[in-house]
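Ticket #4471: structure export looks truncated?
Reporter: QA, pipeline team
Priority: medium

Steps to reproduce: submit the single chain below to the structure queue and open the exported record.
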Amino acid sequence: MKLEDQVCSLELSKQLNDLSVKQESLWYWGKYAYGKEYGLVCPIYYNEHPYELECSAFTVAELGEMLPKDILVGEESYGHLIVMKGYNVWHCVYDGDYRTTSRDTLLANAMAKMLIWCIENKKVKI
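Actual output as written to the record:
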């Protein structure tokens, strides 16, 4: 599995940054100082390279820590958030209300979309 499939996309990362989510992550979306291409940068290992860090590229684990507690994986949940996979698409559903479902082929993106929804609807404090 590629690293890009384990972190949320640049677009969703920028939205989380705009929502004032603290930019602390192992990975960041960065731009090479002499070009326009974005890539994943780990400042611990690449701090000597000329990258401009754009925003955190949160991993599934980091997003899981920020989402509402009582996350259960499976098709049934008595907690706040259900995370499940069906037909090669990940679904996150808040409080069993399928109108609040976020979907994506990548789990990190589905979780990032749900975190954005939770922040905008004041379900979590960041």
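Status: closed, not a bug. The export was complete when the record was re-opened. Leaving a note from the reviewer for reference: Confidence is low (pLDDT under 50) at residues 71-78.
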